[in-house]
Amino acid sequence: LLDKDRLQPMLLDVAACHKHGQEILTDGPAESDWEGAWTRCNVGATWGTKSVKESWAKYLKAAREETFPANILKKGFSLEIQNAEATIDEDKRHILNVVARRDLELPAAESHEAYDYVNDKLRSIFAVKGWRQASEQGLVHEWNLPQLLARDVDRTALSIDLSCCNGIEDSDLEALGEAVSPCALKMLYI
């Protein structure tokens, strides 16, 4: 999140365990999505093209992610790293001091502009990951996703797969466009 010089951004998956099992939101299709696509596409010789496999993988990803708990997504929308927990207090202090570019052994600052920066980045990641589910449930505006995404002012790339998205409204796409307009966006994949 802080390493702006990387050629490729680091991937961030979000996982949740609950009484009905576990769920994971991935950056791109997971291996299981590609395996499912491979199985479906190799049944018939004419279905084996790369674009068809990719479409199947994205479809399977969307189907897998549609049951991700909304309450976990919502917690991500208000995440504050300075209030997060760590198993070892020393780890939390070190993490916060790295974010704030302070000496590791200093007490962690209660607030810092670098925390705000990382919080905005993380919230926008959750907004992107939740956009499909919010669109399908008509909750894009209620969940404030455009505002969360817009706060990530130095985002240079956005990839959001809304293919086969049931219930997406023109207003959802309009809100997405408005959210990225203040950004330093160079690449947009929808």
Task: Characterize the structure shown.
By secondary structure, the chain is mostly helical. It has helices spanning 31-41, 50-65, 70-77, 89-99, 113-137, 145-150, 170-180, and strands at 14-18, 21-25, 157-159, 187-189. The protein has 7 helices and 4 strands. The relative contact order is 0.12. The model has no long low-confidence stretch (mean pLDDT 87).
Characterize the biggest β-sheet.
2 strands, antiparallel
Strand content: 5-15%
Q: What is the distance, rounded to the nearest whole angstrom, between the alpha carbons of the first and last residues?
A: 22 Å
- Helicity, in percent? 40-55%
> What is the succession of H and E elements?
EEHHHHHHEHE
**Biggest sheet: strands side by side, in what order?**
1-2
SS field, number of helical segments = 7
Rg is 19 Å
Assign an overall shape: globular
Q: What is the average per-residue confidence, as pLDDT, rounded to a whole number?
A: 87
Q: Which class of secondary structure composition applies to the elements? A: mainly alpha
Low-confidence blocks of residues: none
Number of strands: 4
